[in-house]
Specification:
The protein is α+β, with helices and mostly antiparallel strands. The protein is built from ten helices and 19 strands. The chain folds into three domains: 254 residues, no CATH class; 71 residues, no CATH class; 110 residues, Immunoglobulin-like (Sandwich). A hairpin with a 5-residue loop joins strand 5 and strand 6. Helix 2 packs antiparallel against helix 9, helix 5 packs antiparallel against helix 6 and helix 7 packs across helix 8. The two termini are 39 Å apart. Its main location: secreted.
């Protein structure tokens, strides 16, 4: 009969004579497995620590996003725009625009020059027009000699209206003339507004409806009155009258529209609130990870990164920087704009009234406290300073992860991976050793069983012989 084996491959018949069973072998192997179990526990700990640092990295990235928002011009001095009649005109302003209220009357909207051809007797715009020859357009654009540019196109009998429009539009970037097809008519329009001249010639012009029967409408300039001053522009979107301010003209009217720009501090306040909230979230996670719990308790539980020097250094750096009383190049500091600690646990708070007052008193100073930059002639940032810039630099020492530059977290993560790899090699060695020991134990106790079985057999024979002799 085949022997019955246990799940670990040891025969269940082991120990029939010696009394040493498969369970005894397992107990012996368990004692030999202390090193393997220790390595497995180390892997679990390292994996937990790596995961904990990954969570810290996520919070740091979220915090950096809020810090970066305070380095954007769009966060500061944004404008709230109002108009008494949006059907006449509207107003917008960028961060360089000043607050102001303006009276505006639109006398004339700007239009573009246009040539509308006569309707052709074809089925549709995809039907060949059956005309061949040349078509020459003269645009309002000029060459280096100041002469009007001309553009010539060869028309074949198989061309459709759509084909002809496509040929013209390939040159639009140079000619500023765009072609379209409406109701089997070719329409040529100047891409720019104002009183600009465009014309059509060529032996195919008449056949295409662009001859004497075509309708030509010369463009006009926009004319409007701004606070009583008459202004003329070749566009209905006027952005060069007041710095940073754009007026969009919508309708000519005898009525006046009142337009205004006022500083909108909500973006700045919202950005600072987000910074404070994300800081508290980050520091809460760090505190949990570094917690030593209550060492007096027998079942004390510590944070996953308790005693981690790098995390403690990060915690200390953040605490020092977030309420730094001195910001280089600025007359303000976090406290003066309402950022301060509100309890002994290090929770950060924001006094919105204080921040709003600082913005009202000197919005440029508030912006400069958070971020200042110097740019080269080609627009590249050459230097940065300020509260947000300093925080950003420190955070990036932890977060940067490129082939040329590994930050603190990337370096720690690689260290964890390397340690786990080494421990797995140790476990493989332990497994090989334990397998060899199991074989050794099984062989040794099997031999013992065999010896005891033979001894018992000999004893039985001896006993039977003794009994025979006695008889």
């Amino acid at each position: 009969m085949a022997s019955i084996t246990t799940t670990n491959g040891i025969s269940s018949t082991l120990g029939q004579y010696s009394g040493i069973t498969a369970d005894d072998v397992e107990n012996l192997l368990q004692a030999d497995s202390v090193g393997k179990i220790k390595a497995q526990n180390q892997i679990t700990t390292l994996t937990d620590q790596k995961t904990a640092w990954s969570d810290v990295k996520t919070r740091l990235n979220n915090f950096l996003t809020k810090v970066t928002a305070l380095q954007s011009d769009n966060t500061y001095q944004t404008k709230k725009a109002t108009t008494s009649d949006a059907t006449i005109a509207s107003i917008t302003g960028d961060t360089t625009a000043t607050e102001g209220t303006y009276d505006l009357k639109v006398d004339q909207l700007a239009t573009a020059s246009k040539i509308t051809g006569t309707r052709l007797d074809v089925k549709n715009s995809k039907t060949a027009v059956g005309t061949s020859g040349s078509l020459t357009l003269t645009s309002a654009e000029t060459d280096t000699d100041g002469q009007a540019k001309t553009f010539s196109f060869d028309i074949s009998g198989t061309d459709t209206l759509n084909d002809i429009a496509a040929k013209i539009n390939k040159q639009t970037s140079s000619s500023s003339i765009k072609a379209s097809v409406v109701d089997n008519r070719l329409i040529l329009a100047d891409n720019k507004m104002g009183a600009r001249d465009i014309s059509v010639a060529g032996d195919a012009a008449t056949s295409l409806g662009l001859g004497s029967g075509a309708t030509t409408a010369k463009g006009k300039s926009a004319i409007f009155e701004l606070d009583g001053m008459k202004v003329t522009r070749d566009t209905n979107t006027v952005n060069d009258v007041i710095e940073g301010t754009t007026f969009t003209l919508s309708k000519a009217s005898d009525d006046h529209a009142t337009l205004s720009l006022t500083n909108d501090t909500s973006k700045t306040v919202s950005a600072v609130k987000d910074l404070v909230s994300q800081y508290n979230s980050l520091m809460s996670l760090i505190s949990d990870d570094l917690s030593v719990g209550d060492p007096s308790k027998s079942d004390n539980t510590t944070g996953k990164l308790a005693g981690d020097s790098e995390l403690m250094r990060l915690q200390s750096s953040l605490r020092n920087m977030i309420t730094n009383p001195y910001v280089a190049g600025s007359t303000l500091n976090p406290s003066k704009v309402g950022i301060s600690l509100v309890d002994r646990e290090g929770t950060l708070g924001l006094d919105e009234d204080k921040l709003n007052k600082a913005i009202t008193d000197d919005p440029a100073a508030v912006k400069d406290m958070f971020y200042q930059s110097t740019k080269s002639s080609v627009g590249t940032v050459t230097s940065e300073s300020g509260y947000a810039a300093d925080l950003s630099k420190m955070l990036n020492t932890y977060l940067v992860d490129s082939s040329a530059n590994k930050g603190i977290i990337a370096t720690k993560s690689a260290g964890y991976d390397s340690s786990v790899k080494d421990l797995n090699k140790q476990i493989d060695s332990f497994n090989t050793m334990l397998e060899a020991k199991k074989t050794q134990y099984v062989d040794m106790f099997t031999r013992l069983d065999q010896a005891m079985m033979e001894a018992q057999s000999q004893m039985s024979y001896f006993t039977s012989q003794t009994s025979s002799l006695s008889s």
